[in-house]
Design a protein that fits this description.
Blueprint lengths: L2 H18 L6 H13 L4 H27 L8 E7 L4 E2 L3 E8 L5 E7 L2 H4 L6 E6 L1 E2 L5 E2 L2 E2 H7 L2 E7 L4 E3 L9 H21 L5 H12 L7 H9 L10 H15 L5 H18 L4 H18 L7 H14 L7 H21 L4 H6 L1 H28 L2 E2 L2 H24 L4 H19 L5 E2 L6 H21 L13 H6 L1
Parallel strand pairs: 4-9
Antiparallel strand pairs: 1-3, 1-5, 2-3, 3-4, 5-10, 6-9, 7-8, 11-12
Helix pairs in contact: 1-3, 1-12, 2-3, 6-7, 7-17, 8-17, 9-10, 9-11, 9-16, 10-11, 11-12, 13-15, 15-16, 15-18, 16-17
Length: 497
């Protein structure tokens, strides 16, 4: 895993720059350290240390670049500008919140419009003529949630409140936007059209909200009650598009187009469809991470190499952090990577508790145990973070995953079918309704969640240190063996063999 130390040092550099906020240029120092690392080719230990320092400096440089991009000096008074709407309006107590992109300088703003019928009717791609004062992101906090950091992570460089009489819809030229932004906007318009198609199929409000979140990444229709049910049962991960959803789509596409004769071409087609879907659902951090890993998986599968590994995950993190180093502080980034890391490291160990021969002879048990092993591994990885950010732990996550993982496959397949054949909407409505009902039953079981957990950052770190130490101990003593081995063997038996 040669990339793991590199990405750890890269993250350390990002955190260091975030804490000390150095302003002087680091590029000359990075070049000097690279030269020193090259000259130390005969001293492996010193060269490794020099490479680590280079990685830290690179992380600091990436963070400096992102900070300079976000530091915009806005005029003190009101200004007139044109913008394009990037999201459907979300209703707040007194305003309608929309994401807009300034046409002149391609900066993203969080825009709060006075709540009325005009603001409610806004849609993705609408052009706006606005007169308002743009302000820097506020420092509002609630618990572990930092609103300013949230806005910066998602690329917002300012916020604005617009009165009802100081904006109107207009035709805006998009020629000044980059090809990437125009492509993204085109996919967002298509998503709005597909959401409209789904909303017209007569599904109940809660069912439509779940379908919109699980298939197209739109969580704006989820009620607080529904969010709480999924949070209490540990099923929130199915509402955030990630590897589970892309894995299902990848499997479906592979069955349709993959052939042995044109394997390379078919993989290109599948991955192109995957990235089109990523653009369609809004390019969240978790879905981009999954798409990158699937792209690497498809590439390595052509050469019959190891497809999924911690090294692959580390490479994916390097790419994402190079594009936006502030992603490191995003809750979705942390949960997504810790879940996958735990599955890659602990999943095979849990599967190895039972021998491969036994699992092959009991296929149903193998399927159930595989789901339990993956769920337990992922939960061990994300539980400390969930306790830190959300203050709770879901006790019945294994039972929940037995419900939502098969249901997620059905919901994704039926969502596509309903768009093509609207008459199947009743079936999709029934599946989502049963899922919601079962999860509400699980949430009502006594002890479904352990509440009011508020660990400190140090406590979270120490939990991960202990987990890592126990995993290494299990490897060294042979208590748990990777899948494919002969199952459990005591240290004495292992030594005797």
């Amino acid at each position: 895993m040669p990339l793991v130390p590199f990405v750890i040092c890269l993250m350390a550099g990002i955190v260091l720059q975030e804490q000390v906020n150095l302003s002087w240029p680091l590029f000359p120092l990075l070049v000097a350290m690279i030269v020193i690392a090259l000259l130390l080719w005969k001293q492996s230990l010193l060269q490794s240390l020099a490479i680590a320092v280079c990685s830290v400096l690179l992380g600091m440089m990436l963070m400096q670049r992102q900070e300079s991009y976000l530091q915009v000096i806005w005029p003190e008074g009101e200004v007139v500008y044109e913008a394009v709407v990037l999201s459907d309006p979300v209703e707040k107590p007194k305003t309608m919140a929309v994401d807009v992109l300034l046409v002149a300088n391609q900066r993203k703003l969080k825009c709060y419009l006075y709540k009325d019928d005009r603001s409610r009717r806004l849609r993705v791609g609408d052009g706006l003529h606005i007169q308002s004062q743009i302000k820097v992101n506020s420092d509002w906090r609630r618990g572990a949630f930092d609103y300013r950091r949230y806005l910066e992570i998602h690329g917002f460089t300012g916020t604005t409140f617009v009165s009802s009489w100081k904006w109107y819809k207009t035709r805006v030229s998009l020629e000044s936007l980059s090809i990437f932004e125009r492509t993204r906007l085109a996919f967002l318009r298509q998503r709005a059209y597909l959401l409209q198609r789904l909303s017209e199929q007569g599904m109940a409000q809660d069912q439509y909200a779940i379908v919109a979140a699980m298939s197209l990444g739109d969580k704006s229709q989820l009620t607080e009650e529904l969010k709480d049910v999924y949070s209490r049962t540990g099923a929130s991960h199915v509402l955030a598009l990630s590897g589970l959803h892309l894995g299902i789509i990848y499997s479906l596409l592979s069955m349709l187009v993959v052939g042995r004769r044109w394997r390379a071409v078919s993989q290109v087609v599948v991955i192109s469809c995957i990235w089109a879907y990523v653009f369609l659902v809004g390019m969240s951090v978790s879905i981009v991470r999954s798409a990158l890993m699937l792209s690497i998986y498809a590439l390595l599968s052509l050469g019959h190499r190891e497809k999924m590994s911690v090294n692959t995950l580390a490479f994916t993190a390097i790419v994402l952090l190079s594009v936006n180093p502030l992603s490191l502080f995003d809750v979705g980034f942390q949960l997504s990577f810790m879940a996958v890391l735990s599955i890659l490291v602990l999943g095979p160990l849990f599967m190895g508790i039972f021998s491969e021969v036994y699992l092959q002879e009991h296929r149903i048990f193998k399927w159930l145990w595989g789901m339990a092993a993956v769920s337990s591994a992922a939960q061990l990885g994300v539980a400390p973070l969930i306790a830190y950010y959300f203050g709770r732990f879901s006790s019945y996550f294994l039972l929940t995953n037995l419900i939502v993982m098969p249901a997620a496959t059905l919901i994704l397949c039926l969502s596509l079918a309903v768009i093509l054949f609207p008459s199947l909407a009743f079936l999709l409505n029934s599946v989502v309704g049963w899922q919601n009902t079962l999860l509400k039953m699980v949430a009502a079981i006594p002890g479904a969640t352990i509440e009011n957990l508020h660990p400190s950052v140090l406590q979270v770190v120490m939990v991960y240190v202990i987990t890592c130490s126990l995993t290494i101990l299990a490897h060294r003593l042979g208590w748990l063996r990777p899948s494919g081995g002969s199952g459990y063997r005591s240290p004495r038996t292992q030594h005797g063999s």
